[in-house]
Amino acid sequence: MDKMKNPPKYNNTRSSSRQMKKWHKWVGLPFAFCLLLFATSGIFLNHRRAISSVDMPRTLLPSMYQYANWNNGSIKSSIQVSADTVFLFGGSGIWLTDPEHRHFQPFVQGMKEGADNRIVNNIIRTQEDIYYAVTTFDLYKLDRTTHTWINQSHLIGDTERFTDLATQGDSLVLMTRSHLYIATYPFTRFEKKELPAPEGYQKESTVFRTLWTLHSGELFGITGKVIVDILGLLVILLCITGILLFLCPSFIKRKKRKGEDAQRSRSLFTSSLKWHNKIGAFFFVFFLILGVSGMFLRPPLLIAIIRAKTKPVPGSVLDNTNPWFDKLRCLRYDLHDKEWILYSSEGFYRFENPDLPPQKIHQAPPVSVMGVNVFCQQDSTTWITASFSGIYLWNKKTGESFDYFTGKKMERKRPGMPTLTNAVSGYSADFKNKQVVFEYGPGARVRGKNDSFARMPEALKEGRISLWHLCLEIHVGRIYTFLPGLWGDLYVFFSGIFFLIVFITGYVIYRRQHKKKKGTQS
Known about the structure:
This protein is of the alpha+beta class and 522 residues long. The protein has a domain at 1-54 and 202-322 and 486-522. It contains 10 helices and 27 strands. The protein has helices at residues 2-45, 207-216, 221-257, 263-282, 284-295, 301-305, 458-461, 467-476, 485-489, 491-521, and strands at 55-57, 77-82, 85-90, 93-97, 105-106, 120-125, 131-135, 139-143, 148-151, 162-168, 171-176, 180-184, 191-193, 205-206, 309-310, 328-334, 339-344, 347-351, 359-360, 372-377, 382-387, 390-395, 401-403, 424-431, 434-439, 443-446, 464-466. A 4-stranded antiparallel β-sheet has the order 2-3-4-5, with no helix packed on it. A 4-stranded antiparallel β-sheet has the order 6-7-8-9, with no helix packed on it. Helix 2 (207-216) crosses helix 5 (284-295). The two termini are 25 Å apart.
């Protein structure tokens, strides 16, 4: 009787295995194309500086990526150089124009080639009337005789990304994501400065940042990034061998019908199966970590972790003695209160000099989780601040914030998910009788007037996008503009589900076959 109970159990296992093979095959096959793009773009994303000179025309991409009316972060701010000259700058580089915005011409002579190398974060003028510009990777000084930007990055000697540039008195302050570099005239020697910990500081990191660096491998430095690169290459190999496993049986049958030798096709099938199984089984846990961590970096799972904090992983790059490691974003000097205002990923702070602990500003203006894009002083008490949460007039004395366009007082609330609704990427007040707000989607908008800003020059219409930013759009799924709104937003989440289905079913199938072989041999 006991023997009669075993066949049904065996049949159930066989039936379950068949079902899993179907899921693995018919989910994995169409998903292989997406997986190839995930892996390839992910590898490129891990090496931003190395590919910073590579870009492509935006005109080859969907319309939402093309420049129209100064949109897509093309402009961040401006600075008046003289009575008839204005520098307009941002993601599209630097444009030389006039206060009546009649003529525009590129002004990037001397800057490194590549769209990513010409994203200008700020341009400042020192009291000695010297102009400096800071990009993502470089610091430049303007030679006004030759109208050329001279690279000064060798004076810094740091591979960190640069975030901002400020001046106060005879000091020039360059800010990276973790440090300040301070120089005095003639600005040939920069002193590296680590800001003291703020009051109440606790050594912790956001869960989002931890998962982000885990997903890229950066959590464990260059070694971790190399490991993730290798995993990306292995995913590509899994996709290729999986496609070959689907195609080879057809090749073999066709050759048999024609009476031809099918040995090469059989060998290709056998080797593909061998490597497909070995790679998938041996690196299964690593692939799971990679997939699950990526799912939490986009909605809806992102919502669950966006504000959560945890202790940094011991021995990781986040386990850093610098309390401001990878947190510094924007720096301004308040000419009226004689103090520095710092915006970091932890919020706004103030300090009189870099040797004193920055003090938290609790009544701060609304800022998107993606960070502040505009921060400039209007008068002794009022600052203009803007992000992807809108643009506001912030009273530094009272802490109150007012909508820039309506003047309506904003009630304090917890910031929500980033959105492109009223997403402001730039601002300028250097044009005659105009205050121009640059929204990420619609583009330039003049405050309080029906008037419009200048027409974009043809050179900007033919603008380029860096390979790194293109890979980012592919990796998060925004490039697939044909997807309906909600499906586009949840692309990474659903891709993660498919990823788990394919890898888990594949691993279970392999383990059952491996166990079966073992039982047969014994």
